[in-house]
Amino acid sequence: MKGYIKIFKFAHPWQKPTATAVLKQQPEDFIVTEQISFPLTGTGEHIWFWVQKTNQNSEWAGKQLAKFCGITNREVGIAGKKDNHGETYQWISLHLPQKDNPDFSKINIQGVKVLRVVRHNKKLQTGGLSGNNFKLILRELKGNKQNIEQRLDIIKEQGFANYFGEQRFGNDFENLNKATAFFTKQIRPKRYQKTMYLSAARSWIFNEILSARIDNKSWNQYQQGDIFQLEGSQKWFVDDNAENLKNRVADLDIHPTGALIGKGGLLTKNTIVNLENKIIAQHPIWKKGLESVGMKQERRALRVVPKNLNWLWLDDKTLELKFFLSAGSYATMLVRELVQV
Fold first, then answer.
1. Contact residues for 74 (Cβ-Cβ < 8 A; gap 6+)
2. Is this prediction's pTM over 0.90?
3. Are residues 178 and 243 in the same domain?
4. Choice among 29, 83, 226, 239 that is catalytic
5. pLDDT of 146-159, one tens digit each?
6. With a cut of 70, which residues of the chain have pLDDT below it?
């Protein structure tokens, strides 16, 4: 890498775990099942495929389905990229107006099985999920069992740091280098590559902000001048000095947020805006580049609370985890607070 650390060296809320384990030893050790919050109409111009994908890239699977149906990749809808290593159950939509359904029994895509086909009146949009159910198995676990369960209890009650996972930044964090190269006009990436590079740059800045908030112990605390996000929603609001906000943060009803930078000044105030601006200023090329392409300024919760978190020891060295995460949060970041993988 050029100018960036080669390891994912961000702060841990409760110190770095000492236990170690192996994740994704086999596909069934990492199972993800998408969940949408709306019913499909059964009619419309779009065909939604419910697929089982094993050790395959989501975009590649969508392209293969498009090729089978004889349409362009632009007509494909995917809600979110999933881990290449593991078993995923997800929706992929294809725009097929005024066409009969192809004979899907003839589909032969390595690592991809079509389990269900439903018509719908809209394309599947990026981020168009309520979240994902996870089933993970940690193997060859070495460490204090009691300490691991204590960490799980804390995560269940208080949530964990909502970092963007390492996969967001590409192999060897190369997407960060590509972002810099794009902003300095050294490369002209394709549309989907450009999206990845923009996302990687501002995701890294968010992670740095979150890490700093963990260091000063404000990542899960009310701070005057902060911006808060409602639990279970993407909606956020500026601190209005309401007396009950401190209690609402403590009750996990709302969460402090960090900047996903774009055009315009930050809406945070006091010490929070100073912290965010200080970190953003360390990345002048990214700041200028993200603003110049018209990225909209957004916010992301600093913590995420898993739903229905349960665990089971299959034996002394094998731990099964089950939980639900809202869209955009990373299961690997929960695991990061339990063990070194």
1. none
2. yes
3. yes
4. 83
5. 999 999 999 999 99
6. 1-7
